[in-house]
Each structure stands twice: as C-alpha cells, then as structure tokens.
Amino acid sequence: MRSSIRRLVTVAVAIAGVVALAGFAWTSTPTSRGKATKVNLTYFTFSAAPDHLKDLQNIINGFERAHPNIHINVQTASYNDYFTKLQTQIESEQAPDSFELNYENFVTYAAAGKLLNLSKIAKGDRSFRASIYYPRAYKVFQLRGRQYGLPETFSVVLLFYNKDLFRQAGVPLPKKTWKWKDELAAAKRLTNSAKGVFGDFQPIQFFEFYKVLAQNGGTFFNAKKTRATFDSPKGIAALNWLLSKTAQGVMPSKTQMGGLDDTAMFKAGKLAMWHNGIWQFAGLKDAPFSWDVTVEPGNVRKAHHFFANAVVASAKTKHKREAWAWLRYFSSSSNAVKTRVKSSWELPAVRNPSLFKPYLAERPPQNRAAVFQALSNIVTPPVIKQEQQLQDIVGKWLDKAVAGQVSAAQALHSAAAEVNDLLKNE
Amino acid sequence: MSESSAAAALAASQYREGAGTLIGRALRRLVVYALLLLGAAVMLFPFLWMVSTSLKQDFALFVTPPKLIPSPVETHNYTRVGELMPIWRILFNSVFVAALSTALAVFTSAMAAYAFARLRFPGRDALFFVYLATLMVPFQVTIVPLFIEMKHLGFVNSYPGLILPTIASAFGTFLLRQQFLTLPRELEEAAFMDGAGHWTVFTRIIVPLGAPALATFGIFAFMASWNSFLWPLVIINSQNLMTLPLGLANLHGQYTTQWNLVMAGTTISVVPILVVYLLAQKYIVRGFVFSGIKG
Fold it and tell me: What pLDDT does A23 receive?
C-alpha cells in the first residue's frame, strides 16, 4: 500500500513536469512558424456541425485553391452554445476573424461596434456586385447605411401537411390562396380524437406572433421604433387566432402533447397541418407517409417569415482584405452555392434562379416552388439592440396567455408596456 | 435508497416477531430482492431508453405507444457519429484530460491540505478562509479573465489550456484538510523524532492514511472534469482537441436535433465512466456518504 502510494505521487510529479514542458512547447511553435507569409483566417460557425462539416471543407478547399496565401481555420459550436463562446472571445479580444450571425442577433453585434464595416472594402472591390444577392437579404444586414454582413443563407416557414391524413378525412388539400378561416375549417374536419390526430399545429411564440400580426395587417413598432404597437386590436385578434386553435380542439395543448414536441408529432403522423420551416425537409425525407408544403394562409394579407444568416468579419481583424475575400467567396461563389444546394445545406441568398434548379427538382416535397413564392411577401423579425430582452418579454406574456392566466388583450398590453420601457434605453 | 431502507425496516420488524424459520427467511429475502430489483429497474430505465433510442431509425423514435426494443435495430447511428466527428480522438481527449487533471488536482490539493492542517505560519487560517471563499465565486464570473490569462500564456486551444485551470481545487483542499486533521499527530511526531522531514511525513504517513479521502476526491475531480462543458467550449476551437461533452453538443443543429445520433454519442461517452465506477464503486459510495454531496 505504502509503496504504491509513493509511486503514485512520483507519477503525479512527473506528469506535472510533462504538462509544464508541453505547455512551453505549445507556446513556442507559433513563433517559429510565424515566418511563413500565409495568412491564417479563423471562421467560426454554428450552421456547419454536425451534418455539413464536409461541405464546408469542400468550399474552403475551393477558396484556398483560388487564394493560395490564405488558410481558413474552422471553429464550430452548436447554435445553443455559439453565442456564449463568441461573446467570451470578443470580450477577451480574441474574436474570430470571420463568423456567422443570424439576423436576430446581427443588430446587437453591429450596434456594439464589433463588426467590420464592409461598405468601404466593397466599394474598392471592382469585381463585386451587390446585385448578385437576393436584394432583401442583402439590405437587412445594413445598419445606419453601412453594410456589416454578406447574406449567407435564408429560410422561410411554410404550411406542411400530411397528405395521407387529408385523403383519409376526405378533405381537399390546402391551396396557396387559403385564408385563416379555410385552414380552421379544414383543421376541424381533420381532427380525429379517436386516433389522436390533430388538425393543425402552430407554435405560439415570438416568431409566430410577429408574423400572424403582419398577416392581420398589424405592425410591431411605430415607424421610428419608439413605441410598441403590437397590442393594437389587430394584434389582439392575431393572438386570439392562435389561441383559438387550442380552444377549439384542433391543435393539441401542452398536456395533450404529453412531452412530445410538434416535430415528433408530425413525424408520428399525428398532425395533419404544421407550421414549420424548410429546414425540416431533410428530416422528413424518409417519412412513412406522403406530405407536401404550401405557402401559409394569410388573413388581411399574406406574410411569411424570413430567417437569414450572414457572414461577418470582426472589427478587430488584422486581415480585412482576406476576410472580405472569404466572405464573398463563401456567400456567393458558384462553388459555395452549388455545394449548398446539392447537400440541402440551407438556401444560399443569391438571386440567380437557375442555380436553384437542382433544389427545385428534388423530392419530397413536390411543391418546392412554394419556398420561392413565400419570398414575395416576407416579413423580417422585429429587431432592436436589446433583442434578447425583447424576445424574453414577449415570450413570457405569450406563455401566460397560452396558460390561460391572462387574456390575449391583457398579455399584449402588459408586454407592450414592458417593451416601451425597454425602447427608452435603445 | 428508500426502497432498501424500507426493506431493512421490514426485515427488522419480522426479525423481532421471531419469524426466524427457514421459510420466513426465504420470504424476507424475496421481498428485499423484489424491492431492490424494482429500485434498480427505476434507476436503469433511462439508460436502457438511451441505448434503445441510439439503435432506432429516425421515424421509429416517436411512435406511440413507445417501443423499448427497436425493430429494426439500426447500428447506422454509431457509424454516423464516427463519420461526423473523430469520436475515438475525442474519447481519448476526455480520458487523457480527466486523468491528468485528476492526478494533478489530487496532488496539489493534498499538499495544500497538509500545509493548512499541519504547518504553522502567520495568517494560515485567514488564508484558508479566503481560499474557501473562492468556492462562492461562480465560474461564469471568472471565465473572461481566465480566458485572457490563457491567451497570454499561449494556451488557447491546447491541452494545457484545458487542464491547468482545473488543477487547483478549493473544494479538494477543504475536503482533504478536514480528513488530515482527524489523523493522530503522534504518528508524525514519532517520525519527526526519527529525523523525517515534512516531505517524508507527507508521503509516508499522511498520504497513505488519507488514501480513502484522496480516492474520494479523485473521483469527484474525475467526474467534474469528465462532465465539464463551459470551459472546454470556450477554450477549445479545433475538433481534434474537443472533449466528449463538446463533441456531443455539436450533434445538435440550429433548428433540429437527431436524437438517435445524440443518444448514440452519449452511449459511447457513458461507457468509460461506467468502467471507472465499477472499479471504484466502494470509494464513490463512501465519498457521497462522507461529504454529503452528490456528484
């Protein structure tokens, strides 16, 4: 016993020495390599892992062939952890040279001065044409007239439907001209409590609310973004529309879902209609039932979500030119666009429709054209600098309305009052 | 826990009633084992469900009613995890980092505990309490300064960057100091009389006598390192240096998660900790009893 413990201690001491040495070895390597003229550019991403790391590498290989003096170092994190890491890196002055931001988080970072202003570099780059991008996607990544990001991808939300359930219930399939009342009428006929089938599902949260608000002709803020306007009668009617689905029994309540989420229920064939994003296509490829999509029903007008990711460069990067070249290549080169379309790695935000032919030809779903029809009337999420707080406030009051603790009107008035306070600090 | 204590109470009451016949004893044993089996089933079910999910196809995940035995059995999830990340390298990193940081943490904590328990120097107790007070500072608060420190040391994205911040443990020092205080001083005094120095007393007397406490703390340190997520997330950039929790988190997508893949990865990650547990079971149970803290 005694000798074995002594051996243990000796081993621990030896190991400590090795670690110390290894540490010094680590620190000394970069300096000896520093002579090379190659530029190491870091790119931090949340959208590549787990399924598209190889596709990302393909795009990088193409870029490095075209720019032999640049090497891209990839860092990945899952979306949920991405911003924790990004913030730590930025606070520690170790921001990655280039990284990814979704539109909702973009304003927070741009307004805080953490992003490189790309307008000047773009002007100096004679081969650059902003018109290559889908115009709306390009424009949303501007702040105070300056371009801070190049649009990388976009997604929209559609009405998914289970064709088999429609056929069994003898209900005609959804049409793109549908309005809310058509959706509700169909949902009632499709709901079959004996089989545990519900006619419809639409999440009741921030992102759905701002959209149905727009579908009902309402606005989220006043034009100057100094006051919340989402608690107008139009807003209250919009929230009541969402709540009425559960109240009328065509959409499952949390209790009725019994711990399953809506994705699981649609995949299990328990939902006839489902409002969700085109990112679900891949996961539904092998569904044991037939399904399709169409644009979402509107009310006063049509309105569709527009989710977009951009690639941006850090304001502190030492390699502005190289970062610009990479952002351009990654967001719009034909290699990048083709790789993405081929592997269904979201949709590149470029305008040339011929590039999307392989995407449109793929099945299921049959009606992929709906993805582009949705683009003709999109609404972007309401964003302010304190975006997270905004989403938290609205989400909190929507939850209370869903739980039946307050009426739709009370929930929205209370949320608006809190948001108005928030806007004073913008 | 409650089942077994209930069983013990039952057994005791039966004993008092004098039902000591052979049949009575067999019956008693039957009841005890039935209750223990029930407890085991409750504890094991989540693990079984994890393994079952990891062997299911995507569309078999959410069928109602749920099925425990997957059919068909899908081993593809495991190969897919292997394709998506260098799982063996990540497993090695986890084992390597956990083993090394445990060894170092036990070593530094034991030495510090010895100093706090046995050496006399001005301000010792004050220093000890300041050291203890650091337990109150949440890691989230120190993460940015620590990161900056690692940056200046050149340890970002490296093994030393992963390991160094974990090798000094206030909790371990506290745990071991309390244990060392209970050891009889006479043994050391005898050793000092024979001309031993502090090093000899530490390695030949304190460490062997405190071995159970060292093992207990070692297990805590190992589990903490094994489960650690936030620090590896921040300090590690390349896939080849990731530890398991980090690798597993990368299996979650922005909008959707393939649970069968996540469960396959989790199953792989649970195996080593199971092995450690089986080897050190005795100490782990003692550790929980000893410290009153569950992992």
Answer: 46
Q: Are strands A273-277 and A157-162 parallel, antiparallel or unpaired?
A: antiparallel
- The alpha-carbon radius of gyration of chain B (Å, integer) is 24
Q: How far apart are CA A261 and CA A50, in angstroms?
A: 21
State the distance between the two ends of chain A, measured CA to CA, in whole angstroms.
67
The Cα–Cα gap between B139 and B129 comes to: 18
Distance from CA of A401 to the nearest CA of B (A): 25
Q: A304: which residues sit within 8 A by CB, 6+ positions away?
A: A156, A157, A158, A211, A295, A296, A374, A375, A377, A378, A379
How many Cα atoms within 13 Å fall on the side-chain side of residue A180?
A: 21
* Dihedral (CA of B73, B78, B81, B83) sign: negative
Mean pLDDT score of chain A: 89
Q: What is the mean pLDDT of residues A172-186?
A: 95
DSSP A7-52: HHHHHHHHHHHHHHHHHHHHHHHHHHHTTS-PEEEEEEESSSTTTT
Angle between helices B259-291 and B211-227 (to 10 degrees): 160
Write the residue in B84, B163, B252 that is nearest to A78 by C-beta.
B252
**Residue A37: Cβ within 10 Å count:** 5
Phi then psi dihedrals of residue A93, to 5 deg: 60, 35
Q: Which of A261, A252, A309, A285 is nearest to A368 (CA)?
A: A285
For A101, phi and psi rounded to 5 degrees?
A: -140, 140
Q: Full-prediction pTM beyond 0.90?
A: no
CA nearest A17 in B: which residue? B104
Work out how many CB contacts closer than 8 A connect A with B.
136
Q: Assess contact for A313 and A113: CB atoms under 8 A.
A: no
